């Protein structure tokens, strides 16, 4: 009989693999590749690389699937970006950027190590149990071929697991009746989300939008006057994460307790190397 997963084992594993997937979004390698295609604006590049698996979709699809971006910001870049860089070219550029980013952050020795192959095998095995229904970003990426190189196969698998959990997370946010900016504000208030400065700089919302969202949250009793989560707000964020865990349990149950523990260990070691190499801006996360 397979032993049950420890509580929050899937979430702990996700917290190791998701940042490894996300390193390329902050990488000069991606900026270089997208600029070579003629896409110089960082938001246009982000929308393109994350949406390309869905094909040349319009602004409405991207806004819905990404959830927390201002519709006006999305519409400034989509679908216009596809005229400059069609999805097939973007996907190839994204893969090249991921390759360069992982080699630069982790080092050639780690990329070629047997542990990388093991991590790829474990992550791909977990992804076998991901489900497609109501998960557009996961489903689109699941249609892409698995790269042959172990480090890129691992990155592909982290992408599948990240988008699978992310699609389910949106369901949890809707159930909690948190609109896009309210979701961002409450996440920032936990200290684990993007700082308000990064939210306003990258998601297309104004300070007035942010202030209005915080006021709505105060009226619901979720934020206090200082912008901190109240007891009710903390409980709601806990419920959101627990519901996200529930909707995302299949891949980790499929991998099993021992496999999840090993994948968490391997991904954690890789993430430590990436962080030590400066994978993310220092002021990205937090309440300030």
Structural key phrases:
globular; 288 residues; HTH_67; mainly alpha; SalK
Secondary structure layout:
Blueprint: H1 9-22, H2 28-36, H3 42-51, H4 59-66, H5 71-77, H6 81-84, H7 87-106, H8 108-112, H9 114-127, H10 136-142, H11 150-175, H12 180-189, H13 196-202, H14 207-219, H15 231-247, H16 249-255, H17 257-276
Structure description:
By secondary structure, the protein is an all-alpha fold. The protein has one domain. About 70% of the residues lie in helices and about 0% in strands. It has 17 helices and no strands. The protein has helices at about 10-20, 30-35, 40-50, 60-65, 70-75, 80-85, 85-105, 110, 115-125, 135-140, 150-175, 180-190, 195-200, 205-220, 230-245, 250-255, 255-275. The longest helix is centred in the middle third of the chain and has 26 residues, at about 150-175. It is globular.
**What structural class should be given to the helix and strand makeup?**
mainly alpha
**Strand count:** 0
The total domain count is: 1
Task: Kindly estimate the percentage of residues that lie in beta strands according to DSSP.
Answer: under 5%
Distinct helical segment count: 17
InterPro entries: HTH_67
Pfam families: HTH_67
Protein name: SalK
Organism: Streptomyces glomeratus
Brief write-up:
The protein is mainly alpha-helical. It has one domain. It has 17 helices and no strands.
């Amino acid at each position: 009989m397979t032993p049950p997963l420890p509580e929050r084992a899937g979430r702990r594993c996700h917290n190791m693999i998701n940042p490894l997937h996300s390193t390329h979004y902050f990488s000069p390698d991606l900026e270089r590749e997208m600029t070579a295609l003629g896409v110089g604006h960082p938001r246009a590049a982000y929308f393109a690389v994350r949406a390309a698996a869905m094909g040349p979709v319009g602004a409405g699809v991207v806004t819905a699937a990404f959830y927390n971006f201002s519709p006006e910001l999305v519409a400034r870049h989509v679908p216009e970006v596809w005229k400059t860089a069609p999805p097939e070219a973007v996907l190839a550029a994204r893969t090249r950027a991921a390759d360069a980013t992982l080699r630069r952050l982790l080092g050639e020795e780690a990329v070629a190590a047997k542990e990388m192959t093991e991590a790829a095998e474990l992550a791909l095995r977990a992804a076998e149990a991901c489900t497609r229904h109501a998960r557009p970003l996961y489903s689109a990426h699941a249609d892409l071929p698995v790269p042959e190189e172990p480090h890129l196969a691992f990155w592909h698998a982290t992408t599948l697991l990240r988008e699978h959990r992310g699609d389910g997370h949106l369901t949890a946010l809707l159930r909690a009746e948190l609109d896009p900016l309210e979701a961002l504000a409450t996440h920032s208030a936990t200290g684990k989300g993007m700082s308000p400065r990064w939210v306003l700089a990258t998601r297309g919302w104004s300070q007035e939008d942010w202030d209005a969202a915080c006021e709505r949250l105060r009226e619901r009793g979720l934020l206090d006057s200082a912008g901190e989560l109240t007891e009710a707000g903390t409980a709601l964020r806990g419920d959101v994460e627990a519901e996200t865990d529930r909707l995302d349990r299949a891949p980790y149950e499929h991998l099993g307790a021992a496999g999840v523990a090993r994948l968490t260990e391997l991904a954690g070691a890789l993430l430590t190397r990436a962080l030590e190499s400066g994978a993310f801006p220092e002021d990205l996360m937090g309440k300030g």
